[in-house]
Amino acid sequence: MGLARLYDRLWTVGERTWTLNLAVADQGMVSGVNFLTGVMLARILGLAEFGRFTLAWTIITAVNIVQQATIIDPMLSIGSKQSPERRTAYFSTVLVHQAILNTALILMVVAGLVILDRLAPDWGIGGLEWPIAAVIFGFQWQEWFRRYFLARNRFFVMLVNDGARYLLQITVLAGLLMSHALQVSSAMALWVISWAALVAILHGFLCFGPFRWSRAVIAEVTLAHWRFSRWVLPSAVLQAINGSIFFFAAGYFYGTALVGGLRAAQNLVGFTHILFLGLENTMQVRAAQAYAAFGKPALARAMRQLWIWGGGLVSVLLLGFCLEAGRLVVLIYGDQFRDVTFYVYLWAGAYALHFCNMPLRIAIRALECTRHFLEVQILVALFSGLSVYPLIETMGGAGVLVGAIGCYLIELLYLLAVLKGKLFSSEPRRHSDVVMPQPGGASRVRSNAGE
Questions:
Q1: Counting Cβ atoms within 10 Å, is residue 84 exposed (0-12), middle (13-18) or buried (19+)?
Q2: CB contact at 8 A, 29 and 162
Q3: The whole model's pTM is what?
Q4: How far is 412 from 393, CA to CA, in rounded Å?
Q5: Are 93 and 75 within 8 A, CB to CB?
Q6: Cβ distance 17 to 218 under 8 Å?
Q7: CA gap 112, 60 in Å, rounded
Q8: Over its length of 451 residues, how does the chain's per-residue pLDDT go in tens digits?
Q9: Residue 278 CB coordination number (10 Å)
Q10: Residues with Cβ < 8 Å from 441, sequence gap 6 or more?
């Protein structure tokens, strides 16, 4: 009996380590390829055309935030709790949700780009309607499948799916970088990204499994997702606007070359995203478990540990980028990007504040007080709307980053004030899953998410 228990324990530990390593390897591959994609495109396209690509990608990122809030986040939270007999019907319903949302977003973006081209014809963004639409289709469907496999604990399939897209994408871009015969444009780069995603989408459909749904399940799942995302969706829309307004204002007043320089500097510092995402994904689960088991003191302790240890590591990385900024910019991008070195310093300050906000956001989610995300985004939107013109008019590209630092600072101060009352108050704990006793000894799980 002792040997059997030891074998079971070793098997469990080995299985957890294996799946964790697959998840970490997958995230490292995705983040690393995204970093290299930015570097290659900056060298291939040049400063002005890379700025045009950046404006297009800003639109894609803003649209993806809506998918994250309405489809991905609810699926990861609710889908992982489904009983085995309900999983097929649940995920089939979410697949229908994804198809409807993706189609609606593509139509709205294409219509919006036609209007944008008339308002700012110098950007040349109007010629990118269909490449952008293709990337939205490919990116969102591939993202849905990778998160679906994550929710089903199919880590190896997720790794293969991401590999099919990202390794193909970086291989084609590397070929374009080494080839001098082709004149690469933003449209061509967007088509490459969308074509690589199509391969992963085909793999995703082949590995999805049986499709089963009913009207009752659709109504039930739709209501559950709405309850989850009713606060997150409006805050996500505001976050998308707040994150793009300074970039678009800079492009409007100074042209796409400035936007390209800002993006190149951000991409250099943005290499820390690998660490950011790894810490946030890990600590979100641990913080929720600590709060559920031991209450607010354990949650506060977990947040302090993340601030101290994670903050120390991030500070060292950002300081290293700042000390070698000039050399790194020229080495990675070439001489034409030398003038963006100053932006690296400002991006490092913005990312430092961004990391300081991470433990606060994790704690808010653990406490299930997502309404405060909407409140803080309203404050940030007011600041952005009032400050965007004077900052960019007087400071140019630096005004964009001063605005970003201001937005992060408002978020930091507001969430600190909120958590001061939440973490150190005498309110009872809230649990995402409360077991409700039923007649006959059965139990039902009630979700409080989004309340």
A1: exposed
A2: yes
A3: 0.73
A4: 26
A5: no
A6: no
A7: 12
A8: 455 454 345 444 444 445 556 666 777 788 788 888 888 888 888 888 888 888 888 889 889 988 988 888 888 777 766 777 778 888 989 999 999 999 999 999 988 888 877 776 766 666 788 999 999 999 999 999 988 888 787 888 888 999 999 999 999 888 887 776 567 788 899 999 999 999 999 999 999 888 887 777 888 888 888 877 877 788 888 888 887 888 888 888 888 788 888 888 888 887 777 777 767 766 766 777 677 778 888 888 888 888 888 888 888 888 888 888 888 888 888 887 888 888 989 999 999 998 888 888 888 877 777 788 888 889 999 999 899 999 998 888 889 999 999 999 999 999 999 888 777 655 444 444 433 333 334 333 333 333 3
A9: 16
A10: none
**In angstroms, rounded to a whole number, what is the distance separating the alpha carbons of residues 367 and 361?**
10
Tokens encoding 427: 């309110």
| DSSP-derived 3-state class of residue 444 | strand
Selection from 252, 192, 238, 246 nearest residue 375 by Cα: 238
The whole-angstrom separation of Cα 258 and Cα 55 is 11
Cα distance between residue 99 and residue 103, in whole Å: 6
Asked if 81 contacts 433 with a C-beta cutoff of 8 angstroms, the reply is yes
Helix (H) or strand (E) holding 265: helix 256-269
Q: Tokens for 253?
A: 């007043």
Q: Is residue 198 packed enough to be buried (19+ CB in 10 Å), middle (13-18) or exposed (0-12)?
A: middle
- The tokens for 123 are 């950007």
**Is the Cβ–Cβ distance between 183 and 58 less than 8 Å?**
no
Q: What is the CA radius of gyration of the chain?
A: 23
CA distance 352 to 405: 9
CA–CA dist 17, 252 (Å, integer): 50
